[in-house]
Structures are given as structure tokens and as C-alpha cells.
Design goal:
2 domains; Glutathione S-transferase Yfyf (Class Pi), Chain A, domain 2; four-stranded mixed sheet; homodimer; alpha+beta
Chain lengths: 216, 216
């Protein structure tokens, strides 16, 4: 029996990406909590697992790995269960490209400029900055358009079942949806609503719910 | 005969990464110049190839692709020539992890905080900011240490021949070496000098020389 530990926290977009992959692969794993925002800083022991102090990191039978894009492709390659990467090189390229676009151009506006600025800041006693949100709307719209041009699926990104691209996109778009401006952008684009609805029916999503989402 | 076009400019770190891969694969390709810093902005036609206006983008028999990590893995998968990814999943993970570490934690300090700040700014009539360089030294040292912990090769990153990680690291470390502070850090770490020397003997490096390097 192999041992698989994910180090991180359930609110984290990137931790959830890795957990969605594990749930889609129907793998057993342990989520080991790491508080990178502790008053005393990133726990020293954790810096041995991730020298830059980000989450997640994993350990698989003693093999230590950090950086989400390396982790998810590794897990897809070594774990049994459905393949989350297509076989054809052009299709594989589109999955990796979508993930890179999400990381380079989506994560910041979707999660920070919309969700954190509009939803989290007021919850924590701060005031939303309208200029940040306005700029985030434009950047988000542009990124959603770029993603639309890469997708070939109706609900899922590619074909009719989830890939690593879907696992990567879901946590970001879900947080974005919690901001009214984000929800409006997703509706305007159309495809993200079909995507989120399809993902929301998956056990992987239910099993990795974020504590920052509204609790039913 | 297949057609392969790289859109970009020879000074660009990321364009050179893609070209190093193509040279290592001994592929024929055309470098089509794109000036993303033109007075009138990114050429409109190019935005159809890369909606975010960065370089490089490629077209391979009509298949258009942008985002370097997607491009290099695609080219390695479809082109004949030596494989630039290992076969074993853990080794593949280390290559992808090294590339992600270079992108997330290396590129900015190596290239912008050291090379651009120390070398390019004065060449263009500006003044180097000592605080930027000092911070860049610390960030670079930390990243070089993290990379050392991932490598298993003596000169090349993994094993005894180049991988996608080597193609990714070379253009960044070469620029860094042109700043005195960068050269000192590379010497301090040790392995980067062996790496650069091994790469400097490869025809791929000679064929992709940057116009910003000293001309012999």
C-alpha cells in the first residue's frame, strides 16, 4: 500500500487542484495541514519540503515534490484510475497551454482581484478597492476569452470528461464566482457556467469543498 | 516536409528556450521576427497568435501554440531526434519541477534584477538600482540552492545529456552571468559553471546566440 501525503490547507486554490486530481484518480491520501501564514512564519520543517514556503507539496512513498504542474502530471502518470491527460500530442499541448494560461493570466485577476478583493477583504474588516476590481474585470474577461479559444469541449475543457485542465480551472473559477463581478463575467462568457455545473456534479468537487465557500 | 515557425526575437529568454529545444532536436524552423515593443504596440496580427502579446508563439503545420512549457513538451513529443524528457515518472517530475522553479523563482531575479538592472539599464542610459540588485542577489542565491537540490547530474541537470530543464535554464543563467554579481553567484554555487560550460560546447547554444551577449 503506497503512502501519499498532501501538505497544505483546504482553502488554497493550488492545494485543491492537487486534491481534485487525487479524487478523480480515486486515490487515498492524507491532507497534512500546513499554516504558511502562522505568526512565526512558515514552519521550519515545511521549508525542507518546499524551500519557497508555498503550498502544496506532496510526499509519495518518500518521493518529495513541489510545484503544482509537476505534481499533477506526476500523479496522473503514476496513479491508477482514469487518465487525466489525452494521448495525442496536440491535445496534450492544449491541456498544458490552458493550465499555463490559467497560472499566468487567470489566477491573479480571478482569485485576487475579484474574489479576495470583493469577498474576503470585507469579511476580514477591510475595504474593497474599486480600481483593483475594475482592472481585474478586464483582465479576467480577456483570460476567459483566451481559454474559450483553447477549449474544444462543451462542459469540460476537452472532450467529455475531466482532464488536468479542468482540475486546474475549477478552484479558480469557483472562487471568482463568489464575487458578483466574477459571477457576471462567467455568465457573460457562457462556457464557464456549463463547466462549473458539470464539475459541481463530481464527487471530487464535493470532497474538496473550500472552507471559504458558503456552507450549505 | 513539415513547416515550423517560431514567432519572436533572438534576445528573448523564452524564445531562446524554444529554439534550444528545436536545435537539440535538429529540427528545421524559421524564426519570424515579432517586435512586441514597437511604438505602435504589439502587432495586431501577432495578437491572433498570442492574445497576451508575449513571445514566443509557434505554428507547426498550421497548429498554433503559445506558452513555452506547452510548446517545448509538444515539440519534444512530436519531433524526431533525441528525447529531452526522461521516461521514468519521478525523473519527468523533476524536469517539470525544475522548469517551474526557474519560471516562478529564477527568471525575475536572474534576468531582471541582475542582468537587466546591472547590464542593460546602463547600456540604455539609465542608472542601476543597488537595492534591486541586492534583493536580486538574495533571491537568486535561494533559487540556485533549490535547483541544486533537484539536480542529479554533474554538468547537465539530469544524467549526462540535455533535457528540457537544461534548455530552460541556459538562457536565464547565461544572462545572469553577464552581470558581475550574477557571475559571482554562479561561481559561489559551483554547479552552474559546469552546466554553462557543458552547454556552451553544444551547437544548439552557438546557433541561438543572443544579440545582447558580447560578440566575439
Amino acid at each position: 500500500m503506497s503512502s501519499l501525503v498532501v501538505y497544505g490547507a483546504a482553502y488554497s486554490v493550488y492545494v485543491r487542484i492537487v486534491r481534485l486530481v487525487l479524487e478523480e484518480k480515486q486515490a487515498d491520501y492524507l491532507l497534512e495541514p500546513v499554516d504558511i501564514f502562522a505568526d512565526e512564519g512558515v514552519p521550519a520543517g515545511y521549508l525542507e519540503r518546499h524551500p519557497f514556503g508555498k503550498i502544496p507539496a506532496i510526499a509519495h512513498d518518500g518521493f518529495r515534490l513541489y510545484e503544482t504542474v509537476a505534481i499533477t502530471q506526476y500523479l496522473d502518470e503514476v496513479l491508477p484510475g482514469p487518465a487525466l491527460m489525452p494521448d495525442a500530442p496536440q491535445a496534450r499541448a492544449r491541456v498544458r497551454q490552458s493550465i499555463a494560461v490559467l497560472d499566468s493570466y487567470g489566477y491573479r485577476p480571478f482569485v485576487w482581484d475579484l474574489f479576495v478583493e470583493r469577498v474576503r477583504k470585507p469579511q476580514e474588516g477591510g475595504t474593497s478597492d474599486a480600481a483593483v476590481i475594475a482592472a481585474g474585470i478586464e483582465k479576467s474577461r480577456k483570460c476567459l476569452k483566451a481559454l474559450a479559444d483553447l477549449r474544444d469541449g462543451d462542459a469540460f475543457f476537452f472532450g467529455d470528461r475531466p482532464s488536468l485542465a479542468d482540475c486546474h480551472a475549477y478552484p479558480m473559477l469557483r472562487y471568482m464566482q463568489l464575487a458578483p463581478e466574477g459571477a457576471a463575467l462567467l455568465e457573460e462568457a457562457g462556457w464557464p457556467l456549463r463547466f462549473l455545473e458539470a464539475m459541481d456534479r463530481r464527487p471530487s468537487v464535493a470532497a474538496t469543498r473550500s472552507p471559504l465557500e458558503p456552507q450549505d
